[in-house]
Amino acid sequence: MTSTEALALSRLRQWAYERTAEQQSKTRNPEARGWCRRDERQFDARRVRTIDTEKALEALRPEQIVLLTYRYVYRETDEKTAQAVGYSVRKISYELPKARRMLARAMERLALI
Questions:
Q1: How many separate helices (H) and strands (E) can be counted in the chain?
Q2: Cα–Cα distances in angstroms (integers) from residue 14 to residues 11, 50, 90, in the given order
Q3: 3 C-beta neighbours (distance < 10 Å), count
Q4: How far is residue 100's CA from residue 6's CA, in Å, rounded to a whole number?
Q5: Could you give the CA distance from residue 61 to residue 74 in angstroms, rounded to a whole number?
Q6: CA spacing 20 to 30 A to 30: which of 7, 40, 41, 80?
Q7: Cα gap 8→53, rounded to integer Å
Q8: 42: alpha, beta or left, given left = phi > 0 and alpha = psi -120 to 50?
């Protein structure tokens, strides 16, 4: 695994964490304008990072997104990941590095890593 792939995976984990926080309403109202406290600006930055990461994920095939999220976000085994996608365990070992490379390239193009 290259360093850019490792950075891309850390961004993927960060995206999953921030998206969960957003879904649990741990963010502020995006319609508010004017001065805001520092902790509120951090929520705005979280929202921008989430949107940017989702743009990078759009460059991948749906199967690759499922592969990456099951393996690196949910930390599932190869067997459970293979079940989720409908691949054999052997095919997972071939497809996972491809998905990592494609995610790293997409994030590099968007200047996210």
A1: 5, 0
A2: 5, 9, 28
A3: 9
A4: 9
A5: 19
A6: 7
A7: 9
A8: alpha
Name the residue type at position 60.
L
Q: Which two tokens stand for residue 57?
A: 């994920």
* 8, 99 contact by CB (below 8 A): no
Q: Give the pLDDT confidence of 38-81 residue by residue, as tens digits.
A: 555 566 777 888 888 989 999 999 999 999 999 999 999 999 99
Write down the domain spans for the chain: 3-26+36-109
Token pair in block for residue 8: 């891309």
pTM: 0.76
Which residue in the block uniquely carries the two structure tokens 């190869």? Answer: 78
Count of other CB atoms within 10 angstroms of residue 7: 15
* Phi, psi (deg, nearest 5) at residue 101: -60, -45
Residue 73 DSSP label: I
Between CA 78 and CA 75 the distance in angstroms is: 9
